[in-house]
Amino acid sequence: MLFSEAQGRPVVDLTTAEAVGTVSTCTVAGSPARITGLRLKAKGRARPEVEWDRIHAFGSDAVTVDASDRIRDERDIEPADPAHFRHDPLDKPVLAETGVGGGTLVDIDFDEATGEVRHLITTDGRIPGDHLLEVGPYATVVTD
Question: Distance between CA 67 and CA 65 in Å, rounded?
Answer without folding.
Answer: 5
